[in-house]
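Lab notes, practical 5.
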Amino acid sequence: MYESILKVTVVQHVSGRPRADLWIRREIGEGLKRTITLAFRGEQRPTVRTVLKRFLPKKKRDSAFPWYWRMDYFRPWRDRMVKPRTVNAEPREVYQAIATWNVNGYHAKSELIADMLNREKVAVGALQETLVAATSSPIRIKGFVTYSSPWEEGFRGHAVVVDDRLSSYRIPHDEKWLIHVKISNWRLDGTNPQFVHVFAVYFPSGGNFRRARTAKMRRLNEMVDKVLRKHPSDMVLALGDWNMSFSDISNRLFTTRSRLIALQTSGSNISRFPVRGAPLNSEHDQLREVTELLPGSGRC
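Output from the prediction step:
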């Protein structure tokens, strides 16, 4: 068997991994190929030593040959050069808008949501009441990265979508009603890149949960304070479904000595308040857009 080896050629595979091609005589090749094929049935690629040791004397086995390399028979398609596909897609416009929307079921409105995000040029969006469980098909929107908390008993689920041209990642914690995402080098004001912390909240609704909303507001303030103490120059953006009126949110922020500043939101022509730009002062479940950003450490 050893004398049947004609040559060994070291090859640099297209994947960048090293490979050695073992050239042997034809009369031995078919038997060796069957041996390797049978070894594959155990879903393990045998080593050179495993395949050839029965044919070699001990003296030959102790040589400097690469015995512990994995064996496989030659497949020519592995060496084909695949040219990358070129996509002549027009670059998208810069997205800067911020929006929050109680969608009441993502999968039933997926196309409408994707159309809204692109038409309104939304860079960061909060989606509440997604009704997407952990075992369901996840939220996927072309051009956006999604961070979500699943629907479960007593909690209808929510998500944050971020333009995939922005560098973002999720900061873990134990609160399912809050999603914390950090965005790096976002030119939110159109000129200076800055770090932005996005806190997407989903507070429980109803008068029976007033105390729970207050507790969650305090927890949010603790997390915001922790971020701003560590990174005082970063911006904080809190949005989502507060299940409170604008005046109630402002009062809660004042009484809890929050570093967040409440901003007035506006309606959209695809919500049930069809006047675009009209201020929304009551508790509502529809699309909202942040119309302005005030100077300060935090925004809400």
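Observations recorded by the TA: The radius of gyration is 30 Å. The CA atoms of residues 35 and 84 lie 36 Å apart.
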